[in-house]
Amino acid sequence: MNGRASVSELAGRMAAVVGARNCFSEGPDLLTYECDGLTHGRTRPDLVVLPGSTEEVAEVVRLARAAGRPIVPRGSGTGLSGGARPVPGSVVVALSRMRRILEVNLEDGWVRVEPGVINLDVTKHVSPAGYYYAPDPSSQSICSIGGNVAFNSGGAHCLKYGFTVNHVLGARVVLHDGKVVDIGGPALDVPGHDLLAALVGSEGMVGIVTEVTLRLLRKPETTRTFFATFPSTDEGGEAVSRIIAAGILPAAIEMMDRLAIVAAKAATGLDWPDVGAALLMDADGPTAEVEDLSERAVKIAREAGALELRLPRSEAERQLMWKGRKSAFAAVGRISPNYMVEDGVIPRSEIASVLREIEGMAKERGLRVANVFHAGDGNLHPLVLYDARETGQEERAEHLGGEILRMCVRRGGSITGEHGVGSEKAAYMADMFGDDDLDTMKRVRAAFDPDCCFNPGKVFPSSRLCGEKPGPGGVEHPAVKSGEVYRW
Amino acid sequence: MVIRERAGKSEDAVQGVVPRLVLEPATVEEATAAVARCASDRLAVVFVGGGTDLGLGARPFRLDAVIRTGALSRLVDHAPADQVVTAEAGMTLAALGEALARQRQRLALDAPLPGRATVGGVVAANAFGPRRTRFGGARDLVLGVSLVRADGVAAKGGGKVVKNVAGFDLPRLMVGSLGTLALLTTVTFRVHPLPETEVTVLFPGLEPDQVRSLAAAWRAAQLEPGSAAAVFSSDRLDLGLRLEGFQAGVDDQVARLLDLGRRSGLPGERLGAAEGAAFWRRHDAVREQGSLRVKIASTPSHLGDLARAWLPPILGELSPAGAVVYPTLGIAFASGEPASGAGLAAGLRAARVAVTAAGGSLVVCEAPPAIRPAFDPWGPPPPSIDLMRALKERFDPERRLASGRFVGGI
């Protein structure tokens, strides 16, 4: 191919594959694809394509590659780290049309779905038979399975049940050259390297998943929930530590600080008291076991200084409590014109002291931080509040967010527990990993996608081109070869 | 830095191939230097922990050196409040278990031969035991690794917290990689509380269909056994279910399981501590003994095929013969002493054809030298073999690590 095809030429070829309605390079629809759930920082793609089948995805990949275009896969666009943010000149491949549930096998406990299927719809599909899909990100009513696979999504209940990676049994993947390959099972322990480990959480950088086989679980017999309030996050954190130390594995154990509680109340109208911290815990499993665990946990919470304990009297009331928690991010919009969601992890036992440190850091910068977090696994979601109309506040907020992540690393934790690195946190990867660590990860990527066709510019802290050759056999990027160098 | 080294002896052999050199690093730094030395001298090397899974995989194409991790056996860090532990790769499961038990915790990875099996080896071989029923396998429990690449470069992946999605998942990629990509030097695991109590319920003498219907019944009743294993007893299955946790919950589940059995006409028995331990010893014997051991991985709905079609041609060639089926995992192991090499190879081939046709795999975990040439230990490579080769090329282009031991000659 001589030089790069023009956008309109490429659009024409793509339209021949996916239909003119499913391919566009201009118009208001393009706006949607300039960013994902991380809305500050937008990049316009040259082209958006919505394939409807594995074969179409493969052809779209071949065409984009032949045209020397980076490919940015996209699910529902709910990601919070800019993982689906396009790069200049890119083709966004959105999988939202591929939303069929293909096959269910309850005895073997799996379901095969297309990547555009919404997380919650998997559970809805098998719920009448008493089964469910465990990973439950807060966005589960809108996020897609393909996106979950790309970001190894977690959720409140991953403390007990694990992340997406623990629930993906197999996948069909379109590779950089348009080849289609099946990896994994339904059967466990397929001989060879655990390629699913390389795929899940790869943030769209190794290929495009077109089918996923997910593990289904039998619903637990009983779920017991309680809501407890504390004077401060010190006592709340202490309660969590003691519950865990007692040998109890909650299905979920969530905490909110004073600001987050205020926000959640404002958004949902819940009659939660004004307190320093609130804890929401689920225990699930066989009834007798759960009742025993729940009683133990309630007793521990009391001993740790709980002000008030509420046990929901109905499923509706339980759902409402969870709604308060799950809507906390958006709720912060009620108390601040703007906010940024962070996603750091610390050793669980350090929660109370970390929260105090965050408070001090925020005060120093004249900002407020609301904290909503998965206390059981030390996954913090500090919400940095700011007012973009005030000069300099946004920069200060961004800076504070970064400082919080670095502090998480200093404490032995991670810069992301579930939102992924994306484009937003690529710069912080170097705080957590050395050059050799990152080079080793790049080798994994290069094994799948030697030319970095897929989702360039994510995860790795460098604006250098893929041609830096991670490991042996690195091939010069076609864009470089053709003299057409992008910065990504 | 002086790394302990010596000439290879017959007991260092990997499937009959004796290395010229044995390196025995005692620290992570020494281990890194040992791999670096193999890199600069272009030595083909196999990493050996407790040697419990050396029978897995093919005979090495080339073998110059063995790096033994046995002296790399320290507990690096145990944070009980965070339920996380980091151990050097050569620490045995038993030693780790002892250290964790002092804080009333455990690693829920109950691979065979815990007194010899090392944490690095267990991860590299994806070894597991009956608790996989509830807690998953190594890939579900590993959080982080330190490793040394073929080029002698040390790197790490994952982290020391239970939740972390930063970067590519090197720890899980190491699971089952059999030393083909890197040497593991430390492994970080998620740990669990030791249960207050455990009880085993035995349903003896079941037909495969009865195991399946019982499994369906306990699933329908929303019971959650922590381990489920059926041990072959002549041509029947003795199904053991282990319940673990706090007393009240365990007692209740035991009672309900027995009730389910009664209603299906399958009387079960709550075993006392000694009888329960005896059942699990029977299970362990199948997993740990025999000069031939094979693993069949399929899906739970194929239990009938496993027990009635796939295992018998193998078991028929073994004496003594044993088999264990994990009904909720769809995985079985057969083991014993082969009567005749030719008959066994034919039995294995017949079983593999059927298992593979049903979407599963049959892998040799241990075999007498006489059988080896007649039977590929891995079977037909999966459709993703080209990706595995590409991965190997990126990590070990000279193919010096566990050369030729892995799937498809990797």
Number of domains of chain B: 3
How confident is the prediction overall: mean pLDDT of chain B?
Answer: 97
Q: Ranges of chain B with pLDDT <50 over ≥5 residues?
A: none
CATH domain topology of the largest domain in chain B: Uridine Diphospho-n-acetylenolpyruvylglucosamine Reductase, domain 3
Principal-axes geometry of chain A comes out as globular
Low-confidence sequence ranges of chain A: 473-488
Q: Under the CATH scheme, which architecture of the largest domain in chain A would be assigned? A: 3-Layer(aba) Sandwich
Share in β-strands of chain B: 25-35%
Largest sheet of chain A: 8 strands, antiparallel
Shape of chain B: globular
Query: Mind describing the biggest β-sheet of chain B?
Result: 8 strands, antiparallel
Number of domains of chain A: 4
Instruction: State the end-to-end CA separation of chain B.
Output: 32 Å
Structural class per helix/strand content of chain B? alpha+beta
Summarize the structure.
The complex is a heterodimer of chains A (488) and B (410). Chain A contains 17 helices and 19 strands. Chain A is of the alpha+beta class and 488 residues long.
Q: What does it look like?
A:
The complex is a heterodimer of chains A (488) and B (410). With 488 residues, chain A is an alpha+beta fold. Chain A has four domains: 88 residues, Uridine Diphospho-n-acetylenolpyruvylglucosamine Reductase, domain 2; 118 residues, Uridine Diphospho-n-acetylenolpyruvylglucosamine Reductase, domain 3 (2-Layer Sandwich); 189 residues, Vanillyl-alcohol Oxidase, Chain A, domain 3 (3-Layer(aba) Sandwich), CATH 3.40.462; 47 residues, no CATH class. Chain A has 17 helices and 19 strands. In chain A, strands 12, 13, 14, 15, 16, 17, 18 and 19 form an eight-stranded antiparallel beta sheet that branches. In chain A, a hairpin with a 5-residue loop joins strand 8 and strand 9. The radius of gyration of chain A is 23 Å and the shape is globular. In chain A, 59% of the residues are buried. Chain B has 410 residues and is an alpha+beta fold. Chain B folds into three domains: 119 residues, Uridine Diphospho-n-acetylenolpyruvylglucosamine Reductase, domain 3, CATH 3.30.465; 88 residues, Alpha-Beta Plaits (2-Layer Sandwich); 86 residues, Alpha-Beta Plaits (2-Layer Sandwich), CATH 3.30.70. Helices cover 31% and strands 27% of the residues of chain B. The longest helix of chain B is centred in the middle third of the chain and has 17 residues. Chains A and B meet through strand 9, helix 7, helix 8, helix 10 and helix 16 of A and strand 9, helix 6, strand 11, helix 7 and helix 8 of B.
